[in-house]
Design goal:
Blueprint (H helix, E strand, L loop, with lengths): L6 H4 L5 H32 L1 H32 L1 E5 L2 E6 L5 E5 L6 E5 L2 H6 L2 E6 L3 H6 L1 E5 L1 H15 L8 H7 L2 E5 L4 H21 L8 H12 L2 E5 L2 E6 L5 E6 L5 E5 L2 H6 L1 E7 L3 H6 L1 E6 H23 L4 H9 L5 E2 L6 H32 L6 H32 E5 L3 E7 L3 E7 L5 E6 L1 H6 L1 E7 L3 E4 L6 E4 L6 E6 H15 L11 H4 L6 H9 L1 H17 L2 H31 L1 E4 L3 E6 L4 E7 L5 E5 L2 H6 L2 E6 L5 H4 L1 E5 L1 H18 L1
Antiparallel strand pairs: 1-2, 2-3, 3-26, 4-5, 4-10, 5-6, 7-8, 8-9, 9-10, 11-12, 12-13, 14-15, 15-16, 16-17, 18-19, 18-25, 19-22, 20-21, 23-24, 24-25, 26-27, 27-28
Helix pairs in contact: 2-3, 6-7, 8-9, 14-15, 14-21, 19-21, 20-21
């Protein structure tokens, strides 16, 4: 490869991708429209053939217009697409109206995989994905629409780069590096399982919904056979290779260095047939869904599991030798003592202020609703008078319920909550009717969040949360998804604000990161936010009030209901001061916005009535990406995001509202700090 050429120049996207992406929504739209329009048009044809013709002609014109727009959009998307390997990581940039740019450091990549959907198969295209421990990478860290040979070559190059080899190599060397070290045989029992499962599923589905076609259900057994023949498992030099799918092929490589465990499972049928399923676990959702070695023979399962774990152990040790933070943290923790409940927790004080704020909000909502009802009453609608008394009763009941809930929770936590800061973990206990004890190792903490709620800002209190990225499975089995959640068991609440700062410093110190020099010459002073940001944020708020006013105006024109004018006046009266207040709020938000970095951490703090401050070690940042929405495009603004394994970090860990040059400078600084501490 020529050193002057980028990856996209050497291994470009196929132009046929534009056609494929254009067809994807159009095909679905055609089937959906046909399902609704054909019966409707047939019915109208009996009543008025001319009306039916105009409906079909209008639908055709709309469809062709949409197809033209999609083609032009995909052409722009294709021309804006960019990817290359840089000293800082793999950079991928894409987008038309809103541009998205992501940088993925090599040591954060967990898995690499190729996949195809049905249209990819038709057009001979492949998508190359990289997964880190975040949800963002699964959505954005992929190169979609390359040919088969280029996809294989790109995967080889990226695997060499990820595992510490030279980033840009020729195709022959990268293909050789991917050669299988060992193939894992698959039991033929799996073939019969897949064939029968496809056969019975198709037979039941066709018998219920398309019974005349039930005779074709044996063809599903052929698909099951082809699905089985597509399975391939290999232990390669750098990871476990899994290929599945005939109709929709997928090739995954799960790197040994990132494998956490290999679980050996057997169901009742598997025990009878003498086969096992091996589950390879990394920190990604991809491994939870795709890293399964099915139909492994009993005599191979144990040996394969042990070999994968042994290779994982060796790869992890090699990776650990380049990490200094763990050793630094171990030295700092060597002689520290366990601190049992080191700071007083003021649950009752927090509850008093929370109850007072809740009272004020409910009262304000009641007054606004009362004003609207009185305006309607003044317009001549006497029937709304009973609603005034009902509203007062509802507001009173809501107030009692909310205040009572706040006070009961505070009393319970006051007698049941305790925490300790040990040498290697934070231990949080809640012992009431049920008992929960959670130990959070410092090595698992992804970021430290100091949060001051609106009510706690008056009470002088704050809470500190240690986000680990632990994921709960949400939804029905097989249909849900892994979601990063933070619970009370990861939070120390109701601290005095000064004590919250002390606790944050203690935890950071035991994590092996230094908070020194944060705030001395902050990044927000050197590279500030744009002063156009408050106006842009305020404009977003005009959309909903504008829609409400337009709908009320249209309803007034159509219905001629006198009360509509009163409601329209109320909407206008409320909208104007609300937008003015929003603008000044955003001005205050801009003034209080803070971000800074030293050699160990990135700190971001934002908020007006209260605040949320994130302290993120650079060792925990998985990706850095630049994004913008439509209004950012109009105002020339960019947002910089960082993501950790928590998944929630994307919601708060971003600097939004800087110019293009400043966005590049901040992103580059963050990426360089990540590389320096890896």
């Amino acid at each position: 490869m020529s050193p002057t050429k980028t990856l996209i120049q050497q291994y470009p996207l196929k132009k046929i991708k534009i056609i494929k992406k254009t067809l994807s929504p159009i095909v679905g739209l055609i089937f959906s429209a046909a399902f609704i329009a054909i019966p409707l048009t047939a019915a109208l044809a009996f009543l008025s053939p001319a009306v039916a013709f105009f409906i079909l002609a209008g639908a055709a014109v709309l469809l062709f217009g949409l197809a033209g727009f999609m083609f032009y959009y995909q052409l722009l998307y294709y021309n804006n697409y960019f990817y290359d390997l840089t000293p800082d990581g793999l950079v991928i940039s894409k987008g038309v109206f809103g541009r998205w740019k992501i940088t993925v450091p090599a040591h954060k990549v967990q898995d690499v995989y190729l996949d195809q959907d049905l249209l990819d198969r038709v057009f001979g295209l492949y998508d190359l994905h990289l997964s880190t421990a975040t949800d963002v990478s699964q959505r954005e860290a992929h190169i979609d629409g390359v040919g088969s040979a280029d996809a294989q070559a790109l995967r080889g190059i990226l695997l060499k780069w990820i595992t510490g080899g030279t980033a840009k190599k020729d195709v022959a060397s990268t293909t050789a590096a991917e050669a299988a070290v060992k193939s894992i045989p698959v039991s033929n029992a799996g073939m019969w399982i897949l064939m029968l499962s496809y056969l019975f599923s198709a037979a039941i589905f066709l018998a219920i919904f398309f019974w005349p076609l039930a005779i074709l259900s044996p063809l599903a057994a052929v698909i099951g056979y082809l699905q089985f023949k597509a399975i391939r498992y290999e232990l390669r030099k750098d990871g476990v290779f899994i290929r599945t799918g005939f109709l929709i092929p997928r090739e995954n490589i799960f790197l040994y260095r990132n494998i956490q465990d290999v679980e050996d499972t057997q169901g009742v049928l598997e025990r009878f047939l003498g086969i096992h399923t091996l589950l390879v676990k990394t920190m990604t959702d991809t491994s939870a869904a795709q890293a399964m070695l099915n139909f492994v023979l009993s005599e191979d399962a144990k040996k394969t599991r042990e070999e994968i774990l042994e290779r994982s152990k060796k790869a992890s040790k090699q990776a650990a030798t380049s990490t200094s933070t763990t050793a630094k943290a171990a030295v700092r923790r060597a002689d520290v003592k366990t601190l049992e409940n080191p700071f007083k927790l003021s649950f009752l004080r927090s509850a008093r202020y929370s109850a007072l704020v809740a009272f004020c909000f409910i009262l304000a909502a009641y007054v606004v609703s009362l004003v609207v009802l009185l305006l309607v009453f003044a317009a001549g609608e006497r029937g709304v008078l009973p609603a005034v008394f009902i509203l007062a009763a509802v507001a009173g009941l809501a107030l009692v319920a909310v205040v009572l809930g706040i006070l009961v929770k505070a009393v319970v936590l006051n007698v049941s909550y305790s925490f300790a800061v040990a040498s290697d973990v934070v231990r949080i206990s809640i012992k009431f009717i049920a008992s929960t004890v959670k130990q959070i190792p410092y090595t698992k903490v992804q970021d430290i969040e100091k949060h001051i709620s609106f009510s706690d800002s008056f009470a002088g209190l704050a809470e500190v949360t240690f986000e680990t990225g632990a994921k709960d499975y949400v939804g029905k089995e097989g249909q849900g998804r892994a979601v990063s959640m933070t619970t009370m068991n990861e939070t120390v609440p109701a601290l005095l604000e000064a004590d919250a700062d002390k606790l944050k410093k203690i935890i950071a110190d035991r994590m092996g990161v230094d908070l020194a020099k944060i705030g001395e010459n902050p990044l927000v002073t050197r590279i500030p936010l744009s002063k156009r940001k408050p106006l842009k944020k305020t404009l977003w708020w005009t959309i909903i009030p504008a829609l409400i006013i337009i709908l009320l105006f249209a309803a007034g024109v159509i219905t001629r209901w006198p009360a509509i004018n009163a409601l329209l006046a109320a909407a206008v009266i409320l909208t104007i001061p609300t937008l003015i207040a929003k603008y000044f709020y955003e001005k205050a938000y801009l003034r209080k916005y803070f971000y800074d970095a030293n050699s160990d951490v990135l700190v971001i703090r934002k908020g007006v009535f209260g605040s949320r401050e994130l302290t993120i070690p650079f060792t925990k940042i998985q990706e850095v990406f630049i994004d913008r929405d439509i209004l950012d495009l109009a105002f020339g603004l960019y947002d910089i995001y960082v993501s950790t394994a928590t998944g929630r970090s994307v919601l708060n860990a971003h600097v939004d509202g800087v110019t293009a040059a400043d966005a590049e400078a901040i992103a580059l600084l963050i990426v360089e700090r990540i590389a320096a501490v890896k």
